[in-house]
Protein backbone atom coordinates (compact mmCIF):
# COMPACT_ATOMS: atom_id res chain seq x y z
CA UNK A 1 0.00 0.00 0.00
CA UNK A 2 1.36 3.38 -1.03
CA UNK A 3 -0.71 6.23 0.38
CA UNK A 4 1.29 8.68 -1.75
CA UNK A 5 -0.36 7.13 -4.83
CA UNK A 6 -3.64 8.96 -5.51
CA UNK A 7 -5.56 5.83 -6.54
CA UNK A 8 -4.52 3.92 -3.43
CA UNK A 9 -5.03 7.01 -1.24
CA UNK A 10 -8.62 7.29 -2.49
CA UNK A 11 -9.30 3.58 -2.09
CA UNK A 12 -7.93 3.28 1.44
CA UNK A 13 -9.41 6.50 2.82
CA UNK A 14 -12.81 5.88 1.19
CA UNK A 15 -13.15 2.85 3.49
CA UNK A 16 -13.50 5.23 6.46
CA UNK A 17 -17.09 6.27 7.24
CA UNK A 18 -18.47 9.46 5.74
CA UNK A 19 -15.43 10.32 3.61
CA UNK A 20 -15.67 12.57 0.56
CA UNK A 21 -12.92 13.88 -1.68
CA UNK A 22 -12.32 17.21 -3.38
CA UNK A 23 -9.46 18.61 -5.40
CA UNK A 24 -8.35 21.93 -3.90
CA UNK A 25 -5.16 23.67 -2.77
CA UNK A 26 -3.17 21.69 -5.37
CA UNK A 27 -4.02 18.53 -3.43
CA UNK A 28 -6.45 15.63 -3.11
CA UNK A 29 -8.37 16.51 0.05
CA UNK A 30 -10.23 13.95 2.16
CA UNK A 31 -13.06 15.29 4.28
CA UNK A 32 -15.50 13.92 6.82
CA UNK A 33 -18.69 15.90 7.33
CA UNK A 34 -17.23 18.65 5.15
CA UNK A 35 -14.14 19.02 7.38
CA UNK A 36 -10.61 18.26 6.19
CA UNK A 37 -8.84 15.37 7.90
CA UNK A 38 -6.14 14.50 5.35
CA UNK A 39 -4.66 15.71 2.10
CA UNK A 40 -2.22 14.41 -0.49
CA UNK A 41 -0.22 16.99 -2.42
CA UNK A 42 -0.43 16.85 -6.22
CA UNK A 43 3.18 17.76 -6.96
CA UNK A 44 6.57 16.58 -5.71
CA UNK A 45 7.71 16.39 -3.10
CA UNK A 46 4.61 14.35 -2.34
CA UNK A 47 3.25 15.01 1.15
CA UNK A 48 0.47 13.73 3.34
CA UNK A 49 -1.00 16.26 5.76
CA UNK A 50 -3.18 15.15 8.66
CA UNK A 51 -4.36 16.18 12.11
CA UNK A 52 -2.78 14.69 15.20
CA UNK A 53 -2.80 15.11 18.97
CA UNK A 54 -0.18 17.00 20.99
CA UNK A 55 1.80 13.90 21.99
CA UNK A 56 1.80 12.57 18.44
CA UNK A 57 2.86 15.97 17.12
CA UNK A 58 5.97 15.96 19.29
CA UNK A 59 6.83 12.38 18.32
CA UNK A 60 6.20 12.84 14.61
CA UNK A 61 7.98 16.17 14.16
CA UNK A 62 11.12 14.66 15.69
CA UNK A 63 11.34 12.38 12.63
CA UNK A 64 13.13 13.17 9.38
CA UNK A 65 10.63 14.25 6.72
CA UNK A 66 7.90 15.29 9.15
CA UNK A 67 7.14 18.90 10.06
CA UNK A 68 4.35 21.17 11.17
CA UNK A 69 1.99 21.60 8.23
CA UNK A 70 1.99 25.08 6.73
CA UNK A 71 -1.36 26.91 6.71
CA UNK A 72 -2.94 24.58 9.29
CA UNK A 73 -3.57 24.98 13.02
CA UNK A 74 -0.32 25.15 14.93
CA UNK A 75 0.79 21.92 16.66
CA UNK A 76 -2.22 19.98 15.47
CA UNK A 77 -1.34 19.19 11.84
CA UNK A 78 1.74 17.54 10.38
CA UNK A 79 3.13 17.26 6.88
CA UNK A 80 4.84 13.95 6.08
CA UNK A 81 7.07 13.83 3.02
CA UNK A 82 7.23 10.66 0.94
CA UNK A 83 10.28 8.73 2.07
CA UNK A 84 9.84 9.53 5.76
CA UNK A 85 10.61 6.67 8.15
CA UNK A 86 6.88 6.07 8.80
CA UNK A 87 5.56 2.81 7.38
CA UNK A 88 2.35 2.62 5.37
CA UNK A 89 0.66 0.98 8.37
CA UNK A 90 1.85 3.78 10.69
CA UNK A 91 0.56 6.40 8.26
CA UNK A 92 -2.76 4.61 7.98
CA UNK A 93 -3.11 4.50 11.78
CA UNK A 94 -2.34 8.22 12.10
CA UNK A 95 -4.75 9.09 9.28
CA UNK A 96 -7.46 6.97 10.93
CA UNK A 97 -6.84 8.89 14.15
CA UNK A 98 -7.07 12.17 12.23
CA UNK A 99 -10.44 11.06 10.84
CA UNK A 100 -11.63 10.26 14.38
CA UNK A 101 -10.37 13.57 15.78
CA UNK A 102 -12.13 15.59 13.09
CA UNK A 103 -15.31 13.48 13.25
CA UNK A 104 -15.45 14.02 17.01
CA UNK A 105 -16.01 17.73 16.33
CA UNK A 106 -19.09 17.07 14.20
CA UNK A 107 -22.58 17.17 15.63
CA UNK A 108 -24.06 13.94 16.95
CA UNK A 109 -26.73 14.14 14.29
CA UNK A 110 -24.20 14.46 11.46
CA UNK A 111 -22.03 11.66 12.86
CA UNK A 112 -25.11 9.41 12.96
CA UNK A 113 -26.03 10.36 9.36
CA UNK A 114 -22.48 9.51 8.25
CA UNK A 115 -22.53 6.16 10.09
CA UNK A 116 -19.83 7.17 12.53
CA UNK A 117 -20.19 5.29 15.79
CA UNK A 118 -19.52 6.94 19.11
CA UNK A 119 -16.19 5.94 20.48
What does this structure look like?
The chain has 119 residues and is α+β, with helices and mostly antiparallel strands. It has one domain (6-113): Alpha-Beta Complex (Aspartate Aminotransferase, domain 1). 34% of the residues lie in helices and 27% in strands.
Short characterization:
The chain has helices at 6-14, 54-61, 88-104, 108-114; strands at residues 19-24, 27-32, 35-41, 47-51, 66-68, 77-81. With 119 residues, the chain is an alpha+beta fold.
- Largest pleated sheet: 6 strands, antiparallel
Residue windows where pLDDT falls under 50 for at least 5 positions: none
Number of strands: 6
* Amount of helix: 25-40%
- Average pLDDT number: 92
Q: What percentage of the residues does DSSP assign to strands (E)?
A: 25-35%
Net shape: globular
Distance between the termini: 27 Å
Spatial strand sequence of the major β-sheet: 1-2-3-4-6-5
Helical region count?
Answer: 4
What would CATH call the class? Alpha Beta
SSE order and pairing:
Elements: H1 6-14, E1 19-24, E2 27-32, E3 35-41, E4 47-51, H2 54-61, E5 66-68, E6 77-81, H3 88-104, H4 108-114
Antiparallel strand pairs: 1-2, 2-3, 3-4, 4-6, 5-6
